[in-house]
Amino acid sequence: MAISIEDVEHVARLARLALSEDEKETFRRQLSDVLEHARVISEVDTEGVEPTSHTLPLVNVFRDDVARPSLPTEEVTSNAPWAADGAFRVPRIV
Amino acid sequence: MEFETIIGLEIHAELNTASKMFCGCPTAFGGAPNTSTCPICLGHPGVLPVANREAVADTILLGLALNCKITPRSIFHRKNYFYPDMPKNFQISQYDIPLTADGWLEVEMEGNNRRVGITRVHLEEDTGKSVHIGESGRIHGADFSLEDFNRAGIPLAEIVTEPDLRSPEEARAFMQLLRATLEYLQISDCKMEEGSLRCDANISIAVDGAMGTKVEIKNMNSFRSLFRALSYEDERQRFAIKQGETLVQETRHWDDAAGVTHPLRSKEEAFDYRYFPEPDLVPIEPDPAWVEELRGRLPELPMERLRRFREQYGLSDEIAVMLTSEKALADYFERAVETGQDPVELAKWIAGDLVALLKDAVVPIQSCPLEPRGLGELVALVAQKVISGKMAKEVLKEAFDTGKGPKEIVEAKGLSQIADAGELDAVVDEVIAANPEAAEDMRGGKEQALKFLMGQVMKKTRGQANPEMASDLIKKKLT
Amino acid sequence: MDLTFSGALEIAGLIKNKEITSVEAVEAFLARIDAVEPDVHSYINVSADIARERAAAIDSRLSAGDDAGAFAGVPLAIKDVLSTRGFPTTCGSRMLEGFVPAYDATVVERVNDAGTVMLGKANMDEFAMGSSTENSYFGPTRNPWDLERVPGGSSGGSAAAVAAGEAPWALGSDTGGSIRQPAALCGIVGLKPTYGLVSRYGLVAFASSLDQVGPMTRSVGDCAALLGLIAGHDPCDSTSIDEPAPDYLTGLDGEVKGMKAGIVKELSSDGIEPGVLERFNATVKALEGLGVSCEEVSLPSFEYGLSAYYLIAPAEASSNLARFDGVRYGYRTDLESDDIWEMYDETRAAGFGGEVKRRIMLGTYALSAGYYDAYYAQAQKIRTLIVRDYGRAWDSFDVLVSPTSPSTAFKLGEKMDDPLTMYLSDICTIPVNLAGIPALSLPCGLAEGLPVGFQVMGPPLSEAKIMNVAYALEGVLGFEPRPPLD
User: Fold this and answer.
1) What is the pTM of this model?
2) How many CB pairs under 8 A join B and C?
3) Which chains touch A (3 or more CB pairs under 8 A)?
4) Residue C155 and residue C123: Cα distance in Å, rounded?
5) Residue B115: which residues within 8 A CB-CB, separation 6 or more?
6) What are the per-10-residue average pLDDT scores of chain C (486 residues)?
7) Which CATH architecture has domain C1-486?
8) What is the ipTM metric for this complex?
9) Given this structure, which CATH class describes domain B421-478?
C-alpha cells in the first residue's frame, strides 16, 4: 500500500506535526513499507469476529461522586512553559 | 413552492454532580483559574480516568425521562482533535454506543402536540475555557488566550433530537420543556447564561417535501437568542431559496448583538475525529435492577404536571405552563393549595405579583420570604373580605420585603376592612345624621349623593370600610 | 562478597539482619553507578542525594526497631516512564526534559511503602517506543555484555542497570516486549504481568490496552518478590483486576513434574538466529529433564500479530501523545508564534524524536476516516483470533514456550534506518501483549558471549505458575548474570 505525499501532509496536520520535505518523503516511504507489511491482515477472514479492544472481562468500574481537594495552585502551572495569573497562556486561536 | 422549516437540536447539559466526570475535583462554577484542577483533569502524563457513578445514573435518569432505551452495554470513545481548552487533546465521549437512545419528548404547542424524537442521550466530559485577550492597539499581534481548566472534565449529558421541530417557536418550546425536565430531575443547574445548558441547532428548509441544505447554528446562549437566531436563519434560507441561490452546508455563528448569523471560519480543515474505543475505561452494563431503581426515582415530569394542574385545579393553559416550568414554583403552588384556598386564586397571585417580586429581587422561589402558607393566608384574607384586592397587593409586597406573615401585617397596621355589619351600620348612621342634605338628595335619587356619602364613610373609617357593604347599607337606609 | 551483584532478597536479608545498613547498600550501588555509567548509561537521572537521605532515614527507623517495610532499605531502579512526585520524569523525551510530576505512580507508591530506595530513573526508548534504547533523547544505553551492542528496549536502561550491577532490581514497562526483550538481551529475568494485574496509574501511556508494568531482576525469586509488591487492585485504574494478588514468593517450589509445555511453532523456527535456537532447544531439553512434557503446537494467527500490533499500538499512541502540546507542561518551541496551530506543529516537531513521530503518523493514519475499518478495526479482530489461539492452547498445555527474542543483542545503529527490521525484534513477545496474558523471560545461557532469553507464557493470572517453571529451570541452568564489564 503506497501512500502519497498528500496523505502524509494530511496526517501530519491531524497529528499536529510540522514536517520538513525530507521527513515527508522518509515517512511516506516508511509508512508505505509498514502498511504493505500490514496488508497480510486484510487477507484474514474475520467475518463474524468481534474486535478485542480489551482483554479484560471487566465492566461497570465506577468511583463514588465525592469531591477531593484539587492540586495546590502553585503546582498547577509549575511545569508550564508560559503561565500568567494561574492560567496557561497560549498564542491566539485563529 | 411549499416551504417547511426543519429543525433538530443538540443540547449539552452540565450535570450537577459534586465531583468531575473522571476525577475528584469539585465542579463549582467560577473561581480563580485552574483552582479546581488536578493531574487527571489537566491531562498530566500517566493519569487515568475513573467514571463517576452518579453522572452515569443522572444520564440514565434523563434517558428514562425522555422515554429512551437504556443500552445494555455501552462504551466510551475518544474524540481526537487539538484545541487548547482540551487538556488531553481528545475528549472522552460516546460514539456509536451511547448510554441511552431512541426516545421522545412531547411538546404542547397551542393545543397541538408535537412528539419530538430523541436520537440519543450520551455522557461526555466538558472542555476548559479559553479567554481571548486582545491587545489590538499594538502593531505586533500581541493577542493571546488564557486557558482555565476548572470546567474541564465536568460531566456533560449530550441530547440529540431528531429533525422533528417545525418552527423557531417549537424549538424554543421544546428547549424550555427540556430545561424544565432537567430541572425536575435535579441533575443540572440549567443556566444557559452560565453555560451549564447549551444548545446548537440544525436548520434547513424543505421545498415541496424535498430535503434542504442543513446549516448548523452555534452560540445561542438564551431561549431568546435561540428563537431569534432560528427566526433569522429561517428567513435567510427562505429568502435565498426564493432568490434561486444555492445554500451551503456550513456552521454559522449567531451574533446576538447584531442579530445575524455569519459563517464560522477557521483555519482548521474539516475535522476527522478518529474516534476509537477509550482503552482506559471499561464498558457500562447497567444492572436492570439499578435501572428500575432509577426509574422509581423519576418525579412527575413537567408535561404530566401541566396536564394535571389544568385538570385538577382548573388552571388556564398560560398559568399552568408558567407554574410548571420550574419544579420549585409548581411545588410552591401545591403547598399553597394545601391551605385549602382557591387554587385559581393562588395560581393568579403566584404567576402575577409573586413572580414579579421574585424577578425584581432576583430571588429564586426556593428562598421566597413569603411561605406558601403565608400566601394562603393572604388569599384567605381577601376571600373573607378582611382586606381588598388592592390592599392585598401591598400586604404581599410588605410580606415579601419583611418576611412577616400577611395576617400579622394587616393587624399591626390596622389595615383590615370594616366588614363587620354591626360596626359599619353605626358608621353609616353617623354619616347620614351628619349630612342631612346629602341624605335628602340620595332619597331623591341623585347618584352624586351616594358617592359623597361613600366618601364620608371611607373618611371616617380611614379607608377600611368594605366598599361593597358600605354602599349596600347606604342604599338600604336611604331608598 | 560483592553487594552490587547480589539480588534484592539477599540485600533485604542482610539489612534485616543488620549485617549491612541501607546507607551501605545505597553507597555501594552509587559507587558502581559512578564507575560504569560513562560506559553503560543506564540512567537518565540518578537520585543520589535523595537516595542517601532516604536510606539514612530508613536506617534510623530500623535501628529504632520500627517496621520500615518488607524491603526496607533495598535500592531500586525505576524506568523513567513512571511518574515520581518531585523527581524528573522524562520518558526519554525532549518533550519532558525537566518535567517534575505532581504525583507518584501507584507502583512507585507501593515500592516506596515497601521501604525500597530509588537510585534513579532508568533510560528508555522515547515514550517506550523502540527495541534498542537508541531512541532516547538523552543518548543510548549500551549492553553491559558488549558495549558495542544495544541492551534491547524499550526498558534497556532498567535491564542494563540490573545486569551491570547498578541496581539489584528494577521496574520496567512492557507494551510489545519492552521488559522481556531487554531482559533477554542483558541476561536477566523480566516479567510482563497479566493485563490488569498491576496498576497503570502513573505509567505514562504508550498503548493503553497493551501496557503493563513489571519486574526486571537478577533471579526468579526477586521477580516474584517485586511482583508481589506491585500487583493488586488499584481504584485509580479502571482496568485494574479487583482481586487480591497471591503471595508469589511462597509459591516458588520448583514442583513442575507432570506439567505440559507447548513449543510455539510460529515463534521458534523461521527467522530465529541459530545461536538463539540452539540455546532454546537446549533449554527445552532441560525442561523435559525436569519432568515437563514438551510438544510443538501451532498457533496460526500469530503470523499476523506483528502487523496487528503495529497498527493498534501506534493508533493508541497517537491519541495518548496528543497531550504533549506545549501548553500545560513540557517542551514548547522557541519559535515566537502568534498562531496556536503553528505553536503546536513546531513544538511537537522539535519535542518528539523520529520514532515517536513515525508511530504517531502511522497511528493517526490507521484511525483516520476511510482507513479505520481496514486497519484499526481489522487489527482488533486479529487480536480476537490471537486470544482464541491462546485459549485453545490452554486446553492442552500449562505453559507455552518460545525464544524471547529472535536474536541476541545487535550492534548500535544496525537497525536504526530500517523500522520494519527493528519491529521484527518484537515478533516473539507481541502476541502476549495482544492477548493480555503473562510471560516471563529467563536467561538461558550465552550464544557467542551474548545472553539468550527463554520465554514462558501462561494463561491470564498464571504468574505463579510461569514463575515456578522458570524457577525450576533457573536451578538447573545455573546462569549467572555477570557480564565481563570491568
Assistant:
1) 0.92
2) 109
3) B, C
4) 7
5) B104, B105, B106, B164
6) 92 97 98 97 98 98 95 98 98 97 98 98 98 98 98 98 98 98 98 98 98 98 98 98 93 96 93 95 98 97 94 98 97 88 96 97 94 94 97 98 97 91 93 98 97 98 98 96 86
7) Alpha-Beta Complex (3.90)
8) 0.97
9) mainly alpha
